[in-house]
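User: I'm putting together notes for a lab meeting next week and I want to include a structural view of one of the chains we've been expressing. I don't have a solved structure, so I'd like a prediction I can at least talk through. The sequence is below, exactly as it appears in our construct file.
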Amino acid sequence: MKYTDVELLQLVNENNEEAKDKLYEQYNYIIDIIMAKYKKVFYVLNMDFVEVRQDAMLAFSDALVSYSNEKDTSLATFISLVIERKIQNCIRRADTIKNKNNLSNYSLDYEYEMFNKPLLELIGDPNADPLVKVESKEAYDELVKKIKEMLSPLEYEVYELLISGFSYIDIATILDKEPKQIDNTIQRLRTKIKDLI
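Assistant: Thanks for the context. Below is the predicted structure for the 197-residue chain, given as structure tokens.
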């Protein structure tokens, strides 16, 4: 016997697992589409793909329970909205944690093993030797804030990946851009930051 979505949802509200499984089989493609959409973001923020998928599954269940056929949206649209909102919240949380870690772990004087040079030289003109000392965390935080305000969204994204240790080739792959475009962006942001410092 074939059930409509509304009938299956009524069964789900009566704790019928079989109805929930049928709806999952019918609409699980939505999770795959939304997960694929944010795949690069998960990589950049070093998020656990399996953990995010579990959150998406919970959001799927929540959508089934809270959907009302009196709403003006279809079940598929409602599921999409709930899952996307959940994933965006996971991304915001991961980004906040990453930024806190970056602020506490990165210093302009910290020397990165893979480059054998400090952050200041990575983002500054390699031929210049600016004598800049950040005396306190407040001064560093203020510098990071000014850098963020001064750079375009793409430049700031590249800057964050650059100080996280990614090469311009890696950054081009992550952001789905041409390596030459990323190289040009790095040169621009180096100039802007050098002027700021």
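A couple of points you could mention at the meeting. Residues 75-105 form the longest helix (31 residues). Confidence is low (pLDDT under 50) at residues 103-108, 122-136.

User: Perfect, that's what I needed.
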